[in-house]
Amino acid sequence: MQKITEKQLHQIWIEQDFRSELKSSDGDRIEVINAGHYNQTSAGPDFNHARIKIGSLTFVGDVEIDNDYSDWKRHGHNINKNYNKVILHISLTNKYKQKYVYTNEGRKIPSISIENLIAVDNLEEKIQIAGKVTESKTSNLKCASEISLVELDLRESTIRNLGVSRFQHKCNKVFKRLKELKFIDELELKEPVIRYDLSREFHNKEFKHDDFKDKRIWEQLLYELVFEALGYSKNKSIMQKLAQNLRLEYLKQFGKNSNVQNTLESVFFNIAGLMPEIVNSTNENVDEYLNELKKIWDDEKTKYDGKLFDETQWHFLGQRPQNFPTVRIAGGVKLVESILNNNLVGVIIKKFSEIHNSKVLINSIRSLFIIKASGYWKDHFIFEKKSKVKLNYIVGLSRADEIFINVLLPFLSIYFDIFGNEKLSKKVLIIYNEYTQRLDNKITREVSEGLELNNLGKKTIYAQGMIELYRNYCTKNRCLDCEIGKKIFN
């Protein structure tokens, strides 16, 4: 059957031109005395004040029409009080032949499918007629169709508050890992990843700012957070594990090496399990760069007794070549070099303390994380295959943007809070509130459109709030825990 939209189904219902009489799933005859008033403007069911006889009983109320039976729940009608007066639910398809839908009061409503009742011979004509009705925008947000019921101020304040909440979650995560690193350091553990339940001593320990004066802990923390951010969603976890296992304390021995970049790349790629196997390094077909990395690792591998990863643990499929883990590790190595040799943590804190103009400050710090492509990685996305496309950056502006928002601001917030610098702590929050990011994403686009907040999708505090709303409320059916949902569905 040709695809029919809900608006087209509405037209078919208005005309009541079915090829056979309507019947409920229990076999009762359905007589439509009055199809109802077509609701084209206000929120709520598609038809109001309908008069329908089902079996021997006549009902007066609303009619809701969906493309599929499952749309009743998917659109949130089951928790929306505006649908409590529905007397009949109609859908084009109902795969599992469900007999009823339920209101938020628990009342069951007969549901019928009209897939086999539409007069096929003149369906095309009906579709063309119905197509003249402008189709409303669709959204996966259950509240989107009725968002006009919620004042703009409430929508904006809800998203803003969720943006603040999301930032606090990030800060809590940063502080938790900071305490773990301090605890590990105190116990002088060689293994950086906590593979056991933290002891009661750790949970009961009251940390003071003096516990965190060691610069090494902050450097390790920033290193882990940046690597996690470089991994995107698919390689996020393993990038974090790589940084947790391959600690800066071990890497510091290479910091003053005259060939530090190749040395670090050799160590990282070999431990990550991404280096191609080179049986004979004297083979003419093996390029000079790979030969160099192999020789370095041959000298170093006996000194490393930590975990080794495997190529199968990394995700390449579905990633843009610029986001391949090989490229991201190459970028991460440059940042590690900057932590080891250029006092990156100290530079960030100094800039944040001394630069007063927000725009200048943001550009100055963000530029530290933009890494131009060079050497082998200027024309390679993976090993042993030269790319026809030149790579300009291995960490570009958009990724540096996300590192600034998701890593540096929470990192700095915790840093200044711990050391009691209230002025700079407030400065972090001011920048978070004022920051405008360059790119949006699928989630922020959908939420901003669904909530009719199209001008706020790139303002960071709102963008973060939209992500928080979508991931922790919308996709978990927590509509009644959301301030916007409460307004609509209660």
Walk me through this protein's architecture.
- By secondary structure, the protein is an alpha+beta fold.
- It folds into two domains: 131 residues, no CATH class; 227 residues, no CATH class.
- The chain contains 18 helices and twelve strands.
- The strands form three sheets. Strands 1, 2, 3, 4, 5, 6, 7 and 8 form an eight-stranded mixed β-sheet that branches. Strands 9-12 form a two-stranded antiparallel ribbon.
- A hairpin with an 8-residue loop joins strand 3 and strand 4.
- About 2% of the residues have low confidence.
A few lines on this structure:
With 490 residues, this protein is α+β, with helices and mostly antiparallel strands. The protein is built from 18 helices and twelve strands. The protein has two domains: 6-136, no CATH class; 208-434, no CATH class.
